[in-house]
Specification:
By secondary structure, the protein is an alpha+beta fold. About 20% of the residues lie in helices and about 35% in strands. Strands 17, 18, 21, 22, 24, 25 and 26 form a seven-stranded mixed β-sheet that branches. Pfam families: C2, Copine.
């Protein structure tokens, strides 16, 4: 957005700065001159995408199988998360597939592989490399090309439903078996395959299944960008017959919203020249178009959404006596302890998004005055009507003054605090305004006692405008935390209900405390 008059020039963000926010990248794959493994007809290639995680190659996704084709352009779009600050290794493997048996990973079906990093593809936008067989042998002249596209912030997606009428008949003994391809025409005049429909057998007026594509993929989010749509008659030997084509734009497609339909003549340029009264080779109709907007975190922040920040500190006895220098809660007059370092590290980033700079600060797992009963959600400023502190500094001061007054105890119950923040978030949810988002920062030294209740609370919270950051302080075993994070699989409640979205991020502080 342009700066209002009188603000002076707003500096352009540096490319490095914008890269760090980049989160998802779409990859398109094509191959040339693949080896022919089949005696009677050509190979039926399929591409597997593997990603290296902790030294192991894991399959992330695979493409469709393209029948009888040594120069395949795959319709499958691989989406990968892109972390600017990490080296993310990718491996593409091409196999000759065999019908119902699926993709065999036998050596004799292996058509070649290629390794690179996400960063290389993103930096070069288009990478073509030779395919290698086992032991570094070239797979003949085979090459693989990967084209990458960043998914920009304004990325929504569209749902399209096409049909055709009265297509030309290309088959002698039956009717054509039509499928539709949509290509986006880029600035350099090259064409990118956006989508390939399924084949409708033996039908000159096919109705194809509705499908979804991102606006980025369809037209690079530019409504006037030219699109080329081609109808083919499918041939199992890979020699598809051209029926006809038409050109359009996303702008024109949008006339199909609501009750309207848009249609195009499907033209075969050769027939147009040869036949005098040639009208078309059929008509393609866009029956329906729905646009789904997807908003990013920044869209909400720029739209005025406020972040409300709550800190929860673990005051259980396993942290050690605060008077002892080995304790994670040790009050050291010369330097902050582990809890304070973690609090400041996360809090300073989050406070930029919080307009009133007031943070709710809670404690759990301690006996508190006046009766010294155990509490799992007490205000560390001991003001039960207003648990907010002024800025991160206010939280630090409340923490330091509360430590001598409480007795570290247990057990480590986290569910009560998650439920407390969730109740506030639920009140906000009812307003339907998306004006507030809640972040709960839990600082803990490890094992959770009420794991079942905590899992239940997180599944409930995943339906609300809130996220949870858990920072593991000290050198304990953080296996429980890794489970709650859900990165190794979907977190489920004890009854088996999955989270609606992944709202927990766990970070072991010891791995990060020495980085800038």
């Amino acid at each position: 957005p342009r700066a209002p008059a009188g603000m002076g020039d707003v500096p352009e963000p540096s490319p490095q700065a914008s890269l760090a926010v980049l989160s998802k990248v779409e990859l398109r794959v094509s191959c040339k001159h693949l080896l022919d493994r089949d005696t009677l007809n050509k190979s039926d290639p399929c591409v597997l995408l593997l990603m290296q995680s902790q030294g192991q190659w894991m399959e992330v996704d695979r493409s469709e199988v393209i029948k009888s084709n040594l120069n395949p352009v795959f319709a499958k779009i691989f989406t990968v998360d892109y972390y600017f600050e990490e080296v993310q290794k990718l491996r593409f493997e091409v196999y000759d597939s065999h019908g119902q048996a699926g993709v065999g990973t036998h050596d004799d079906d292996f058509l070649g592989g290629m390794e690179c990093t996400v960063g290389q593809i993103v930096a070069q936008k288009r990478v073509t490399k030779p395919l290698f067989l086992k032991y570094g042998k070239f797979a003949g002249k085979s090459t693989i090309t990967i084209i990458s596209e960043e998914i920009s912030g304004n990325n929504g997606y569209v749902e399209l439903a096409f049909r055709a009428k009265k297509l030309d008949d290309k088959d002698l003994f039956s009717k054509s078996d039509p499928f539709l391809e949509i290509y986006r025409i880029d600035d350099d005049r090259s064409e990118q395959l956006v989508y390939r429909t399924e084949v409708v057998k033996n039908n000159l007026s096919p109705i194809w299944e509705p499908f979804k594509v991102s606006l980025n993929s369809l037209c690079s989010c530019e409504e006037k960008r030219k699109l080329r749509c081609v109808v083919w008659d499918y041939d199992s030997r890979g020699k598809h017959d051209f029926i006809g084509e038409f050109f359009t734009t996303f702008e024109e497609m949008q006339k199909a919203m609501g009750e309207n339909k848009v249609q195009w003549d499907c033209m075969n340029p050769k027939y147009k020249i040869k036949k005098r009264n040639y009208k078309n080779s059929g008509v393609v109709v866009l029956l329906d178009l729905k646009i789904h907007r997807v908003y990013s975190f920044l869209d909400y922040i720029m739209g005025g959404c406020q972040i409300h920040f709550t800190v929860a500190i673990d005051f259980t006895a396993s942290n050690g006596d605060p008077r002892n220098s080995c304790s994670l809660h040790y009050i050291n007059p010369y330097q902050p302890n582990e809890y304070l370092k973690a609090l400041v590290a996360v809090g300073e980033i989050c406070q930029d998004y919080d307009s009133d700079k007031k943070f709710s600060a809670l404690g759990f797992g301690a006996r508190i005055p006046p009766k010294y009963e155990v509490s799992h959600d007490f205000a560390i400023n001991f003001n039960s009507d207003n648990d907010e502190c002024e800025g991160i500094q206010g939280v630090v001061e409340s923490y330091q003054s509360c430590l001598p007054k409480i007795q570290l105890y247990g057990p480590t119950n986290v569910a009560p605090i998650i439920s407390k923040v969730a109740r506030v978030a639920a009140d906000e949810e009812r307003t339907k305004e998306a004006s507030q988002y809640f972040i709960l920062l839990i600082l803990t030294d490890g094992v959770v006692t009420d794991m079942a209740d905590t899992r239940e609370a997180i599944v409930r919270a995943s339906y609300l405008p809130m996220s949870i950051i858990i920072v593991g302080v000290g050198n304990a075993d953080f296996t429980d935390m890794q489970i709650l994070d859900g990165d190794d699989g979907v977190l489920r409640s004890p009854k088996g209900e999955p989270v609606l979205r992944d709202i927990v991020q766990f970070v072991p502080f010891r791995e990060f405390k020495n980085v800038s």
